[in-house]
Amino acid sequence: MRKINDVVEKLLLCLAGSLFAAFILTVLYQVVARNYLKISVSWTDEVAMACFIWAVFIGAAVAVRKRKHYVIDIFPPQFVITQRVLRLFGSLACLPLIYVLVVHGNILVDMGWNRRSVALGTPMAYVFAALPVAGLAMLLFSIEVIYDDMVALCNGGKVKRMNEVEGS
User: Fold this and answer.
1) Residue 21 pLDDT grade (very low, low, confident, very high; cuts 50, 70, 90)
2) Per-residue pLDDT tens for 104-115?
3) How many helices (H) does the chain have, and how many strands (E)?
């Protein structure tokens, strides 16, 4: 499972980085076209928005695996088992959100086939598809994270993930 997630994570990071670069270049082009070339380019808003949405949702999926979302430490690091229980609870609490992203994201994608973007005329389903795709990636990563949490909890909090830094 970890090897599959490693490959998925690398692909998603490459895709998110490329989309973010496309976002930056599109906005840069829009600024140059409007301020220096004195032309209005209508499609740049939609392309930048789509790239940004996809990059953010894909980044959020990778953040689930790396545990880079916001965390508030309530107990000191000496409370290892308590910290592990809270981490497991946090991982399990993400599952309803993942459900919403996948199930209701698919409903939104279905509705998006009937909606067209104004400037490009493409179906909005392509933009909305970021939700279920990111949700599926989050589900895949959550399975690994929850498994790691349960193993660590069963071993008294002593086991660490291979990529986890000492002291975190």
Assistant:
1) very high
2) 999 999 999 999
3) 6, 0
